[in-house]
């Protein structure tokens, strides 16, 4: 009886490890890392022309507000896609958030798409794609639609970048 | 009893498996925060200085006529919920003269307080202002003689309008 239990345990363990390894080699192979973010302040200096004028139409971050790295690919031919979304409980008070890729980064693979602003929704939206490992892909943000009717306060959302191995 | 042990082992293994799989999956996303702060925006400006108010006509038996000016306007932008505009002068008027000011309210927000005599103390001139962007709103000045003993004189006063919490 003892030998049978040991054999079954070893078998289960082997199956588990195999499944885990296969998982790592397929869907979980590519990783995305992001550093940065964006915080800005809206005050009287943001009026188009001082008293009697509205706030400027949109606010843009610096070109490299966020830097993204794509690693762990299976090589320069391993294609991937980055999607973006914001938290479903976004607290931007009606403002629209956009994101665009401002740099290709570097690495053995390629990167393309996403060089025009993409509106960030609460569901995943295609952002840019490429292949192979790429580092230092720079990202810029834009927020528009903030009116004088937005009361004083702090508003924020969490942006999630998801890399999908293709 | 044997079946229970097998089942327990299987459940433990699957739990371990899914736990590790979950950790591996988490690496496929990265998050960033985007936030903005809206501060109190209270901007007010005037179009310029009024014409010199000159009292130089009278009807026999009466005090001289008041001098009036309505050549100036003000502009305002605020995101406050309950604001008012106050007015004051930098030094009191000489005896026998009364300088009054009247401000119209923005068409969509607030109410004129009806104007009044300017002193070095704050005078409410528009109240109940909510978020608004408006320009070209009328200001009227009136210089009234209030004493028969008024001697010829001249002077300049600086009028300060303040947009503040009500």
Task: Outline the secondary-structure elements.
The complex is a heterodimer of chains A (166) and B (166).
Chain A: H1 2-25, E1 31-36, E2 38-42, E3 58-60, E4 66-71, E5 79-86, E6 96-101, E7 110-112, E8 118-119, E9 125-131, E10 134-144, E11 153-165
Antiparallel strand pairs in A: 1-4, 3-10, 4-10, 5-9, 5-11, 6-8, 6-10, 7-9
Chain B: H1 2-26, E1 29-38, E2 42-46, E3 67-78, E4 83-89, E5 97-103, E6 111-112, E7 116-117, E8 123-129, E9 132-145, E10 159-165
Antiparallel strand pairs in B: 2-3, 3-9, 4-8, 4-10, 5-7, 5-9, 6-8
Name the features:
A: 166 residues; mainly beta; B: 166 residues; alpha+beta; Immunoglobulin-like; 5-stranded antiparallel beta sheet; 4-stranded antiparallel beta sheet
Biggest β-sheet strands, sense, barrel of chain B: 5 strands, antiparallel
Alpha carbon gyration radius of chain A: 22 Å
Work out the radius of gyration of chain B: 34 Å
Coarse morphology of chain B? elongated
Which two chains share the most extensive interface?
Answer: A-B, 61 and 45 residues
Low-confidence stretches of chain B: 14-27
CATH architecture level-2 label of the largest domain in chain B = Sandwich
């Amino acid at each position: 009886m003892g030998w049978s239990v040991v054999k079954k345990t070893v078998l289960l363990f082997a199956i588990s490890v195999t499944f885990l390894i296969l998982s790592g080699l397929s869907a979980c192979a590519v990783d995305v890392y992001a550093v940065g973010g964006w915080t800005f302040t809206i005050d009287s200096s943001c009026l188009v022309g001082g008293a009697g004028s509205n706030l400027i139409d949109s606010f843009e971050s610096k070109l490299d507000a966020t830097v993204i790295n794509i690693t762990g690919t299976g090589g320069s031919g391993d294609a991937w896609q980055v999607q973006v979304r914001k938290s479903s409980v976004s607290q931007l008070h009606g403002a629209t958030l956009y994101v665009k890729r401002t740099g290709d980064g570097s690495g053995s693979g390629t990167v393309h798409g996403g060089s025009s602003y993409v509106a960030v929704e609460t569901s995943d939206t295609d952002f840019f794609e490429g292949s192979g490992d790429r580092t230092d892909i720079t990202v810029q943000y834009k927020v528009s639609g903030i009116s004088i009717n937005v009361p004083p306060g702090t508003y924020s959302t969490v942006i999630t970048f998801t890399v999908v191995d293709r | 009893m044997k079946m229970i042990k097998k089942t327990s082992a299987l459940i433990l293994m699957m739990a371990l498996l899914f736990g590790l799989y979950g950790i591996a999956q988490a690496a496929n996303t990265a998050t960033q925060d985007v936030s903005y702060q809206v501060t109190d925006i209270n901007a007010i400006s005037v179009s310029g200085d009024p014409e010199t108010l000159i009292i130089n006509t009278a009807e026999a038996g009466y005090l001289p006529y008041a001098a009036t000016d309505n050549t100036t306007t003000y502009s305002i932008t605020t995101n406050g919920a309950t604001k008012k505009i106050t007015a004051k002068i930098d030094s009191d008027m000489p005896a026998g003269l009364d300088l009054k000011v009247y401000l119209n309210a923005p068409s969509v927000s607030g109410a004129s307080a009806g104007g009044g005599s300017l002193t070095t103390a704050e005078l409410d001139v528009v109240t109940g202002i909510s978020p608004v962007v408006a320009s070209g709103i009328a200001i009227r000045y009136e210089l009234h003689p209030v004493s028969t003993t008024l001697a010829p004189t001249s002077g300049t006063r600086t009028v300060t309008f303040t947009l503040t919490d009500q």
